[in-house]
Design brief:
By secondary structure, the protein is an alpha+beta fold. It contains ten helices and 16 strands. Helix 3 packs across helix 6 (190-212).
């Protein structure tokens, strides 16, 4: 081989070695970038996942999620890893007695179903309390003020009074019982069944408590308060105002919708900005037939699917827990419910799996401590089917 050929071969080998080193270095860089991207994606997924690593509702239908739920619901086992092989933080009572704290996933699903079942929980103001001694301090009168000249004296003005409201607290519970044999052999999603049923029961109970609760181991309901026909300027603090239809148990014989318009303007403008209607479906059915002088229906349906219908421009919500139309019934509410009522969450929903207390049944003992009370009696008005 000539010296020239030797130089060419050496140059080619040198080039191949340089390319090999470049390829290895580049592949290492790509692998490192892919690892970082995967790590970022995992962190993002965990940040958006309720319960920090527990399966979301969107993953509930995945086979791995079903297997994870099956281990807990059917067999009472305590999983150490989630459906995506992420480490879970579990809080347990004694494993020996069969009671395992259900993960936040199910807590949140119970709450979600509860909200769907009751309109009021989505309308009122909700706060979380870390003590059972929750108080709401409310001003009962406005501060006095006066116009003055440049050099006029400025004596002290009266300061509005305050009242301390302590919403009564109670514990809500459900304890469905399922045989171990059914848990072993059921051919349907028993986890979803238990969660849905408990959520429905809690939703109905909370709705009832907010509307008609008597304050004994449960919230004080809006309709359980004291009502008077007098206006805000003369009515005692804490009393709610009602507007009578003029007929016991029915609407007026003519111009039936006029009383609804009167109810709207009994509410101060500051509350009308975010006000809405709440009524029993039976009453809603009556109002659906009301027309104006041009023959147009007063209730307007939403232009977008899922939007509530409106009456005089204010959204309408229905509740089966509102009274039906009857003599002296308060079957329609109108107001700003977030300003009118506070609902207090003392503890989140908790579910304990109990396989020993009532053998051969497995109990899913679920509790939630809540409180509630009217805090602003001016912010909501009621329509009363009464003569006066």
């Amino acid at each position: 081989m000539s010296s020239y050929q030797s130089e060419v071969v050496a140059a080619i080998e040198k080039g191949n070695e340089a390319f090999k080193q470049f390829k290895e270095k580049n592949e290492a860089r790509v692998a490192d970038l892919e690892s970082k991207i995967e790590d970022l994606e995992n962190k993002s997924a965990r940040a958006n996942r309720p319960g920090f690593g527990l399966p979301t509702q969107s993953s509930a239908g995945k086979p791995e999620t079903k297997a994870w739920a099956d281990a807990f619901i059917r067999k009472g086992q305590t999983p150490t890893q989630g459906p995506e092989e992420k480490a879970l933080a579990w809080s347990t009572n004694s494993g020996a007695d069969g009671g395992y704290a259900v993960p936040k996933l199910i807590d949140q699903r119970v709450d979600a179903v509860a909200v769907q079942q009751g309109a009021m929980l989505g309308l009122v103001r909700t706060v979380d309390s870390y003590t059972s001694d929750f108080h709401e301090v409310v001003q009962t009168a406005r501060n006095a003020n006066s116009w003055v000249g440049e050099t006029a004296a400025r004596p002290a003005t009266n300061t509005g009074g305050f009242v301390d409201i302590k919403p009564p607290m109670g514990e809500l519970y459900a304890n469905p019982q399922i045989t171990q044999q059914l848990l072993d052999d059921a051919g349907f999603d028993i986890e979803n069944y238990v969660v849905t049923r408990v959520g429905e029961e809690f939703g109905a109970a909370i709705e009832t408590g907010i509307l008609t609760g008597n304050g004994v181991n449960q919230p004080n309901g809006i309709l359980s308060g004291t009502f008077a026909a007098t206006d805000d300027s003369t009515r005692a603090f804490g009393q709610l105002q009602y507007v009578p239809t003029g007929v016991a148990g029915d609407w007026a014989a003519s111009n039936k919708a006029d009383i609804l318009l009167s109810l709207v303007y009994k509410l101060k403008a500051v509350y009308r900005k975010t006000a809405c209607w709440l009524m029993h479906p039976q009453v809603m059915q009556d109002i659906l037939g009301f027309k104006d002088s041009q023959g147009r229906y007063l209730i307007q349906t939403g232009l977008v699917q899922g939007e509530p219908p409106t009456l005089f421009g204010y959204p309408i919500f229905e509740s089966e827990m509102m009274p039906t139309k009857a003599a002296n019934s308060l079957s329609v509410l109108f107001g700003d419910f977030k300003r009118a009522y506070v609902f207090v969450n003392r503890t989140p929903t908790r579910m304990l799996r109990d396989a020993l207390t009532n053998k051969p049944y497995v109990g899913f003992y679920t509790t939630r401590r809540v409180a509630g009370a009217v805090t602003n009696s001016e912010a909501v008005k009621a329509l009363k089917f009464s003569a006066s």
